[in-house]
Specification:
It is a single chain. The chain is an alpha/beta fold. The chain has eight helices and eight strands; from the N terminus they run E-H-E-H-E-E-E-H-H-E-H-E-H-H-E-H. The chain has a five-stranded parallel beta sheet with strand order 2-6-1-7-8, sandwiched between helices. A three-stranded antiparallel beta sheet has the order 3-4-5, covered by helices on one side. Strand 4 and strand 5 form a beta hairpin. Helix 2 packs across helix 3, helix 3 runs parallel beside helix 7 and helix 6 packs across helix 7. The longest helix is centred in the middle third of the chain and has 17 residues. The two termini are 26 Å apart. 38% of the residues are buried.
Length: 228
């Protein structure tokens, strides 16, 4: 038996800053960062390229055998490969965000990725973020954090990120898309978004990035004794 790995699970709604916080925490802890959202976005990109729409997204189940998801770490950053293509940048659009929400509601897709996600956590000390990490993927994680913020603040942050990437999109569109994704994520039948019973809830609305990072490191230190 090898040593027990340390798993940090960070869940929360779209735009809460989970990926940013998880990536920074993993760097400072010298853990592996696992961005599960990128996995769903990659499958969403596949669905979009296949011409699937919301009304026929269920057809994706029969296509999963033709999907290969590979994760590689370069310079401490996670790169996602879809059928051999590095799609790390291509999956970061609002359109693919909507597709990710659609495909993540499909139980076969969630099962398809479950083994990969758990294997990474079994073999490495990880910080993993998503929407059902503490409740479904890593229910035995030593640290479970549910990171959230008001819908307005999350939309403001996401809008700023998209503008910085050169996307021409209004705040109102981002806000409405976020509300729709919240509705789908919290009401879907497969692993709906909710805090694990033993998760620490942290609302970052009134905190900047550095303050949020400080508070999350404190939670991890208290739960594991790991110096951060």
């Amino acid at each position: 038996m090898g040593k027990e790995t340390i798993n940090v699970a960070i869940d929360g709604p779209s735009g809460a800053g989970k990926s940013t916080m998880a990536r920074l925490l993993a760097q400072q802890l010298h853990f592996v960062y696992v961005d599960t959202g990128a996995m769903y976005r990659s499958i969403g990109l596949f669905a979009q390229r296949a011409g699937l729409k919301e009304e026929n997204i269920g057809r994706l189940e029969g296509m999963l055998c033709g999907i290969s998801i590979d994760i590689r770490y370069e310079g401490g950053f996670q790169h996602i490969f879809l059928n051999g293509e590095d799609v790390s940048d291509k999956i970061r659009t609002e359109e693919i965000s909507r597709y990710a929400s659609l495909v993540s509601a499909l139980p076969p897709v969630r099962q398809f990725l479950l083994g990969l996600q758990r294997r990474l956590a079994e073999e490495n000390d990880v910080v993993m973020d998503g929407r059902d990490i503490g409740t479904v993927i890593l229910p035995q994680a030593q640290v479970k954090i549910f990171l959230t913020a008001t819908a307005e603040e999350r939309a403001r942050r996401r809008h700023r990120e998209l503008l910085e990437k050169g996307e021409n999109i209004s705040y109102e569109q981002v806000y409405q898309d976020l509300l729709q994704r919240d509705e789908k994520d919290t009401t879907r039948a497969a692993a709906p978004l909710r805090p694990a019973e033993d998760a620490v809830l942290f609302n970052s609305t009134e905190y900047n990035l550095e303050e949020t990072l400080f508070e999350l490191k404190k939670i991890i230190r208290e739960k594991t004794g790991h110096a951060v």
